[in-house]
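@channel sequence for tomorrow's demo:
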Amino acid sequence: MHPKTQQILEVFEEINKIPRRSKQEAQISIWLQEWGRSRGFEVKADALNNVLIKIPASSGYENSPTLILQGHMDMVCEKSRECMHDFSSDPIRCVYDEEWLRGDGTSIGADNGIALAIGLVLAEAGKNGEIGHPPLELLFTVDEETGLTGAKGLEPSFFEGKVLLNLDSEDEGVFVIGCAGGQNSMITLPVEWELLDFKEESLFGFFRLSVEGLEGGHSGVEINKQRANGIQLLSLALAGLRDRLGAENLRLVLINGGSVHNAIPSTAEAFIALRREKLKQAGEAVSGMRKAFQAEYAKTDPGLILSLEEIGREIIFEVAGDRIPEKEASRIRVFSAETEEKLIELILQLPHGVYRMSENIQGLVETSNNLATVRTAENEIIIVSSQRSSNNPRLAEITGKLEAVAKLAGTWIEHEPGYPAWEPDLESELLTKCRQVYTGTFGKEPEIRVIHAGLECGVIGSVHEGMEMISFGPTIKDPHCPSERILIPSIEKVWIFLENLLRSYR
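structure tokens (generated this afternoon):
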């Protein structure tokens, strides 16, 4: 293993001791500031906790342009159902598995903690005289994963450089020069409740209907892989049970699914009251649907599980929290039949997946939608959808379809502020230099790509005029998933490329 790879991994493990869920980056921001000041670097932070660490040029590079190395502090916190990890307090355990580094039942935060580690090791190597480099600015932003709000909040004077190296791409040997823009939407369905009396409890039992074991994944990077959506499958299962048993024999108490807006939902669950005399039919129906789902998604989601299990009423109360008042403990609240029907039809009508492929770039998803999360609140059900497109009219088009479906279902929809696309520039001087350095270093041409995910380059370039930008990074598989992992040898290649790229500016 290259000595710098080992050093980068050690720093990455230190970073992973610090909780850094999106919108909770204060601790990692302070740690980065202290790291920089303890080594004599100029450091500043803004009100959002974005951090800039300035590294003076090596001797002979004083007249070179300032280069910005940029990544984000936050991570998507995903874990397997059986994992007891608490992302708000527990260090993330790194597991070395041959050439891969992964978490122990959790996402590992290589997206984008590895950028922080590479930047810090690079700064220290420059300070120690191990490598030569132009003036550097390490720009570490917050809250990339839930809306790029750290990048959006950067003041024009926060950094000086006009050449930005974004380290948030996930395929070594690929240079990204453009990305999609996007927008999140929140659909709210009011809930009408009914009280289900259990004077004769033997008539009903409480059950958990769940979809688990799906691959999930990044809603931009993996949206074209036709992976199953847990929320959609759960709704199909609920619709199938209602049709088979009769709506009066199955009453919905609670529904939750998905985790974050930018991950394809890998799990979803519904708590239901089921008439016991229909239990055998219900079991047969679930078994049949499970076999059908597993056959349909055998290649994309081989671990798919659809299950129906009896539970105690206390479990429903634990999951629902104060949404079920204590005084109603003997008479549980259920959705009205009308609410159930509206909800299931709404979910099944909402678009999910690839909407349109690019006409200009072969194989590129132009426009997509991710049916991301569903949550039962006190008096409403909230559904979050995430739209992406590199074509602004098409982004408006898919968002308009969501609005139409929401309106027909009698719900209302709100849109969060979007983020802009990053238009590719094939004539960029930075791209030309990076191609030359990569080819000279490894003896082969890098791949040039525009991606369907959102990158902070789009925001930074739209606000700060005259920026030259490129994105690259080591190979990361299944970001935003419990199976997230990083290929260790690819870290070495990124380091060697960076070292040669910096040297080329002398």
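heads up for whoever presents: The longest helix spans residues 110-127.
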